[in-house]
């Protein structure tokens, strides 16, 4: 069995976020970055499956060399090897295309990742990957068991929880309480130093060229309308093209 866990690298939730001088990107100076918390859940459950089944576990990240310390942490937790696609993660579609391009010839039985990253929160990368590879897809997955060649899943739905079974191969978007986060052991940390992080070039043939990004900010007017002048609210909304 081969398992691929895709990880994102995101700002720590305790970091103060500011924009750079172009007002289009996050200013990374002084920010602590972490593996996406939902991806940590996916990795933790994948490690448990690896220990139960002797599966091969590969970690994949789309990003720059700055992320290699965090990738090395994933190796210390128990992943067998890691792959970094050497390009900035610009949007969900681009990241999904990079994952698809890497995974399509690798015969992975199971691809796991968080239900969403905690920076952009798009929550669609796993769906795009599943569609691109024609794999079964479920998200958010709260519980995962293996039954021979099937997966037994508990997923969150609008009406509560549902228990389903599906065949492999599959792509899963994961969340708590699918597993508890792992802490790397000293032995794992030492072993991770010799594990491979393969760096591969991005695939630019399958998606559009990124030209520019613009952050649109809307200032709150914060106007107080006295109760006796409530009728003036209509005029203000019209003047601001809000109605």
**Could you tell me the radius of gyration in angstroms?**
21 Å
**In the CATH hierarchy, what is the architecture at level 2?**
3-Layer(aba) Sandwich
CATH homology superfamily name: HUPs
Distance between the termini: 57 Å
Q: State the major sheet.
A: 9 strands, mixed
- How would you describe the shape? globular
Q: What's the total helix number?
A: 6
Helix and strand run: EEEHEHEHEHEEEEHEH
SS class: alpha/beta
Strand order across the largest sheet: 9-8-7-10-6-1-4-5-11
Uncertain regions spanning at least 5 consecutive residues = none
CATH class: Alpha Beta
User: What is the helix content?
Assistant: 25-40%
CATH topology: Rossmann fold
Counted up, domains total 1
Number of strands: 11
Roughly what fraction of the amino acids lie in strands?
25-35%
Mean pLDDT: 88
Describe the structure.
Keywords: Electron transport, Transport. Belongs to the ETF beta-subunit/FixA family. It comes from Aquirufa nivalisilvae. This is Electron transfer flavoprotein subunit beta. This protein is of the alpha/beta class and 243 residues long. The chain has helices spanning 37-53, 68-77, 92-103, 125-133, 186-192, 232-239, and strands at 2-7, 9-11, 33-35, 56-62, 81-85, 110-114, 136-147, 150-157, 160-167, 170-174, 197-200. The chain has a single domain, classed as 3-Layer(aba) Sandwich (Rossmann fold). It is built from six helices and eleven strands. The protein is globular, with a radius of gyration of 21 Å.
